[in-house]
Amino acid sequence: MIGNDPTPPGAAGSTLLDVAELSKRFPLRRGGFFGGGHTPMVHAVDDVSFTLARGETLGLVGESGCGKSTLVRLITRLTDPSSGSIRFGQRELAALPAKAFARDADRARIQIVFQDAGESINPRFTAADAIADPLRKLKGVTGADLKAKVEEAAALCGLPLELLDRFPHQLSGGQRARVGIARAIATRPDLLVLDEPTAALDVSVQVTILQLLVTLRETLGMSYVFVSHDLNVVRLLCDRVVVMYLGRIVEVGPASQVFANPLHPYTRGLVAAVPRLDGLRDDALRLAGDPRSPIDPDPNACRFHGRCPIGTDRCGTEMPALRRFAGGRQAACHYAEEPP
Amino acid sequence: MSSSTLRHARHVVSENPVTGIALALFTFFVLAAILGPSLAPYDPLASNTMRALQPPSAQHWFGTDQIGRDIFSRVLVATRLDLGIAAASVALVFAMGGFAGLASGFFGGWVDQLVGRIADTIMAFPLFVLAMAIVAALGNTVPNIVLATAIINFPLYVRVARAETVQRREAGFVDAARIAGHRDIGVLLGQVAPNIMPIMVVQMSLTMGYAILNAAGLSFIGLGVRAPTPEWGIMVAEGAAFIVSGEWWVALFPGATLMTAVFCFNLLGDGVRDIVDPRRRT
User: Fold this and answer.
1) A139: which of A227, B51, B52, B117 is 20 to 30 A away, CA to CA?
2) What is the pLDDT of residues B48-64, one digit of tens each?
3) Which family does it belong to (chain A) (predicted)?
4) Exposed / middle / buried, residue A279 (Cβ in 10 Å: 0-12, 13-18, 19+)
5) Domain count of the fold of chain A
6) In a domain, A95, yes or no
7) Given an 8 Å threshold on Cβ–Cβ distance, is B195 in contact with A124?
8) What is the total count of domains within chain B?
9) Contact state of A169 with B183 under an 8 Å Cβ cutoff
């Protein structure tokens, strides 16, 4: 029942998603009327590589505008990448245009829970219509079978069945979030991308939704890519974490280690910025200023250069590569070995 | 669903009595259009020169015209033709303009350019003059009046549909639909179109009044329906000659009916919006 006849019958721990050198650039404006000339490009996602194992939860953190959302749209195949590869199981998906992927057999296996559940449910659809939509389109389920599957998904997500014929504006924020999750798990995906699933919710509701997500991961054996601003949630929920800055990955590693002992100065700044009960903050690590422009960034300079508390001239002339460290960690900083 | 819509409609009407008046008038006009010919006390085409230009009386409620035809019967019978032309042209422009606007807003690029230029070209003309030109060029038959009325309303529908679509093109539910396996055309017709329906229905109701006026206007200047067919515009045109000599009723009654019809559809627009918009449903 779980999974959709998995094309590569992978065991837990085997790689489900392998993203390599993935980039997405948006032209800022069209080339001049007379042709030629350089078109400025926004480097939204730049040379990003990471893997996701079956059953794993990967956190994706970084400030607004760092390319998280674009990366999410790339791996859910809503947008076509400019270059790079996205291997899903045994299959290369990057070359497949997003339009063609809409009706692909693997579409049902990659699903997403959107940031704002209220906005992501068609206001003219009832909750049942919304949950039924992917089942009908991707699985060809109809009639009584469809009703049963919708109710099953709703029950899994703790959505009372009597709410199924309500419109989104008649539901509370938490109920909408449950509809959004029920819709995403209805096709029993292998990979579920969670794009700040609790950002629009009250704190009290956030907890119940996060608990639901943890339960669902166990029951349905899904892998999560979990995007969030909330580092505490990422620390609790994720096995590994990817930290992004201005379109590039600056640090990857097991969540517990990354947060306890960050290697990259940007991660240190992020961790230091988490509010703490004792009120102590490391002012030396406070990130000042704004990120550099993502438009045609200097390929030979660290993106964090200028804002980095430990940056040197070398950072302005040599882009640090993502290097491997002990314990399965990676960081893109020339000075990652040095104690903070 | 339908019973809740009905309940909501009742709520809207009780909240805003003007909508109730508009609805009552609308029902009245629709009944007149359907039953008019069988209810008319006289043959609308039968002339009786013995009784020409008689003022309103118990026998002839709206009086008689220059060749003794009963004006009340003619006004009543004309309802079907006037409303029919307007309804047909609104339906036509709703299909053409609505779809063009949806596609233009959703796909952007050359589709948007093409549709935008066509709409601009139409708007470059004084609209009534354009309608005159179309009917004059194609011949004054009822289908051509319908077509001309639809064409001059085309830019309005395109702009409304396009603006509403652009707002929703990037909406979360559009991405959600793609994730659920819908292709462009499915997203457009299945997801975006239902969401712009309320505003399009309001638009239809508002242009309905304008379409009636336009059809009557064409007939008034002799480019629409031809005499002796009973039609409000022609009747006003024929009656206009007699106002100076004191026979006011010949033009007044068809004119007042025309005005009431336009008024009714304009009022109805606001009420319809309240009824079809689910966000106002409580």
Assistant:
1) A227
2) 778 777 788 878 788 88
3) Belongs to the ABC transporter superfamily.
4) exposed
5) 1
6) no
7) yes
8) 1
9) no
